[in-house]
């Protein structure tokens, strides 16, 4: 796909998709995954990022990742864009990229570096070598300080770097990064609906969603309101969705680690909405009964909200 077309396709809501597992977590339910994706596509989803954090990347094998990406390609229509998550050593990234390309994917998303010791020159080299090794579009995922403004600027002019997923809650830093990055990349707000309005004003022409796995109509309505500069409606929808997003940011019961509820909320929401969510894999845990009850109340409020009835 031409790079300018691919950059344009990332000006959208990027569905970071969850993976349904069997009751004991041992198997990926590929038929159920395909059914989930078909329903999301019918609801209007066109941009999908499988094998990201919502897709429990680090709990999957390479074989599962490849089949998950292939399922996305097969289960969605010709208008869909698929960007599969990759991470690890350069040979591993190259192998996954080749397999994703063979499966029909359009791009890869390079996960935020999971390495204790990182040098910014070495990280820039890493991205450059990934670009050298694949013909797919490349999305840079920034979730922490390692992927600095300098690193993004360094790689932004590579032809196959099509987008940056900026998942740090710092609008001022995002604004400066957009202003100082020379390449023509598409900017995705990587912290989803809670800050969609603020990041859009500063240059994000798309955002990623986990909530869209079970409420695609709601997040697409928010995106359309922002794109139409209908800020009153956009803020109303954002406030409606915020309790769910705030619950995802919580640590869960008997835990101090941040955002452990993130994926379990998505999966329970899918079960509520008639999709197949199912359990999470270690090192995640399912929602507590109390948090399930809270999510059920928030989801009911979204389903009955008048603001979503008309555009």
UniProtKB/TrEMBL annotation:
The keyword tRNA processing does not apply. CDD domains: DHDPS-like. It comes from the Archaea. The active site is at 141 (proton donor/acceptor), 165 (schiff-base intermediate with substrate). GO terms for molecular function: 2-dehydro-3-deoxy-phosphogluconate aldolase activity; 4-hydroxy-tetrahydrodipicolinate synthase activity. SMART domains: DHDPS. Pyruvate binds at residue 54. InterPro entries: Aldolase_TIM (IPR013785), DapA-like (IPR002220). Keywords: Plasmid. It holds the Pfam family DHDPS. The keyword rRNA processing does not apply. This is Dihydrodipicolinate synthetase. It comes from Halostagnicola larsenii XH-48.
